[in-house]
Records
---
Amino acid sequence: MKVIKSWLFFIFLLDSSCAFAQALTPITLSYSLSKTGYKAADTVDFIINAKIKKGWCLYSSEFAADGPIKFECVVEKSNAFFLLGPLLAYNPFAHYDEVWEAEVKIFEEVAQFRLPMVVKKSGKIIFRARIEGQGCNEVCVPLSTTIALDLSTLTYSDYVSASPSVYSHYEKHSK
């Protein structure tokens, strides 16, 4: 009987920790392309859009300070495309972070990152990458995911620039 109670308690703890971990998923990622129906030699942007829960922030990929985990997209090499440059963050705002005692760049509400590339063929292209970052409010949680997507199935989605309230938010913080 003690063994059964011990197992039930263990299962309860495991289930509780999983529920707690699920509650701490403040950032949801989605992926799209800047151009659909691409052909060989076309330049396209692989777009990572992030929805950030109210009260949370996501650290950008572009700031000099050590400390928080910067947003990063590490792409697996492919013969089907080549990257034109680094991951670009669109409109993060500067923020002095008291925890890290440094000037950082963050996003609130939504974020967008773009990775410019040239595709070498039309049709199915598998894009594999590891994405990492950090979201914070009173606590910080790591963001880590591995993706394998067929670029030919992605559509264009740019809800960051489609939201005027987001741009007013950026303007307020950029002054």
---
Amino acid sequence: MDLSTTPPDFNPFADPPATEAGPVSGSQQDTAVQRRTPDLVWPLVILLLAMVLICLLVRLNSLQARLRALRAETQQARLQAGDLQVKLFQLNKAQEKRDRFSAALQQAEGLWIVSAIYGSGTHFADVSGRVNELLRGTNTQFYAHPDSLGADPTPGWNKTLVIIYELHGQRHLFTTGEGGQVSSAALREVGTP
């Protein structure tokens, strides 16, 4: 049914007009309504399906755009992760070089930290690496404290720092209580006969 040629006063739900033969009987009227109803329903159903299809296509396009954006973000994150891995590798290599240089420097100076432990009773933490870092820095003095040593094996209890070191090929022992001052000068003093 072409809606563009429908007269403006057309009402699809009105009773059909009487014909020259007289009024339309009930069965004729039902048949006329049945003939008109499919003519009106199918275009509406098709229009509704077209609107649903358009909505789905718009949603699909927005989801595809979001997927493209997520793929781009993922690719960018992968590139950044790769860059960070390269930088971390470079930093680790630089740290290894620095450690080797520091160890060589300490040996050349005659001072070598063999081990260092911090704690009390039966609870001690190995702080050898941290003590080495603190003693080879620009300020070679620090205090035996959980904050500076990065370990607190017995919170709330007094602790002791025990350092075993070599000075000019001879092994020595240095101990200090919590809060005690430690420096390469103090270690040299203890190790000097």
